[in-house]
Each structure stands twice: as C-alpha cells, then as structure tokens.
Design a protein that fits this description.
It is a single chain. The chain is an all-alpha fold. It has a single domain, classed as MetI-like (MetI-like fold), CATH 1.10.3720.10. The longest helix has 32 residues. The protein starts with a helix and ends with a helix.
Length: 222
C-alpha cells in the first residue's frame, strides 16, 4: 500500500529548497561570474564541497550545528522555543546546503556565457545593474535557470544521507521517499520498495525529458 505522506513531504521539501536556492544562488552566481576577488576560488570551493563530501559527513556536522547544543540550533531554540534538528526546518537548511552547487554552478556558467561586453554595452547605453540583469542577463540565461531549477529540485527529491542524519525518520514530518524505500528494503518488503522506486525513476526521467525538450526549444529560438 502506497503512503502519500512521504510523497507530500518530499515534494514540499524540494519545492521550498529550490525556491530558497534560487533566491540565494542567483545573486551568489552573479557575483561569482563578474568578480575578480581573490576569494572567488575559496567561495567556489565551499559551494562545490557537497559534490565530493560524503553526505554522512556533511549530515553529521550539520546535525551538530543544528542540535540544541550547537550554535545555530541553540539560537533557533532560543527564538522559537523549538528544536531545529529532526524538524522540517532543519531538513530545509540541510537540503539548501547539500543542493547548493546544483543551482549555483549552472547559473554561474550561464551568466559567464553572456559575456562582459554585453553588460558593458548596456551600461554604455545608460542601463543600471538591475535593468541590465532583468532585461538582458536573465533572458539570455533562461537555459541556465531551467537547468538549475531542475537539478536543484531533482537532487533534493533524491536525497538520503543528509536528510536521514538531520531529520531522522519521523512520519509526516521528516520522512521522505528515499528513507521510506530504505525502510522497506531493510525489512525485506521489496514490493513496496519497488512501487516507490519505480515512481521516482519515472519522475526523474520525465523531469529530465521535459528539461531537455525545453532546452532544445530555447536553443532554436536563440
């Protein structure tokens, strides 16, 4: 029997995480694409850490930071009178950090492809930074945004190690699809595991198919 609660928690987590990543990742990627700061390599390395760092390592240190004895968790508990670890809010924080490179890197590459001459031409014509980004950079970077949204959302849906370390396995709160599949496999309930796994497989294929289709249409228009 398929339980709907893990599906709703997973989709909610992926949606909230993707929105936050776009709000944070867009200005960060824009800064990385235009800056000449000596700290650029440091920031890029920090953003890319989840690509090479084992999820359990990242999840462990996030658990320490978000726990009531951790700096972030202590402040959160003081303000909200609620624990941050093993909560949906904690899952969002962990997911944002873990999926950060999947949003920032495509956006940065897309911004860099536009090129500084285009930006300089806009400035010469009297456009400010906001107008240049809104009317020139953003339209020319639509493919990058599409890829960033797709990868950020899909990667969050498929998370396991980080969400398990931070959120545990609380039904209707932090129990996501990847954890449900693991639970069923652990007790040899392969039929139920098949249902969820096939659903995620079909979902992943459909998301990638739609993304590639839109990318081709955008390439034709450009």
């Amino acid at each position: 029997m398929i339980e709907l609660a893990p599906i709703f928690v997973t989709l909610k987590l992926a949606t909230v995480t993707t929105i936050i990543l776009l709000l944070i990742g867009t200005p960060l990627a824009w800064w990385l694409s235009i800056t000449r700061s000596q700290f650029k390599v440091v920031i890029e390395s920090v953003v890319a850490l989840p690509l090479v760092l084992p999820p359990t390592v990242l999840g462990f240190y996030l658990l320490l930071a978000l726990s009531p004895n951790g700096f972030i968790g202590h402040l959160w508990a003081y303000v909200s009178d609620a624990p941050l670890s093993f909560s949906f809010a904690g899952l969002v924080i962990g997911s944002v950090i873990y999926s950060m490179p999947f949003v920032v890197q495509p956006l940065q590459a897309s911004f860099e492809m536009v090129g500084k001459p285009v930006q300089q031409a806009a400035y010469t014509l009297g456009a400010n930074s906001f107008d240049t980004f809104k009317n020139i950079i953003f339209p020319l970077s639509r493919r990058g945004f599409l890829v960033a949204i797709t990868l950020g959302f899909a990667h969050t849906v498929g998370e396991f190690g980080v969400v398990l370390m931070i959120g545990g396995n609380i039904p209707e709160v932090t129990q996501v699809l990847s954890i449900v599949i693991y639970d069923h496999v652990e007790v040899l309930e392969y039929t139920q595991a098949h249902y969820y796994s096939i659903g995620l497989l079909i979902f992943s294929f459909v998301v990638l198919f739609i993304t590639y289709s839109f990318n081709r249409k955008l390439m034709v228009r450009i």
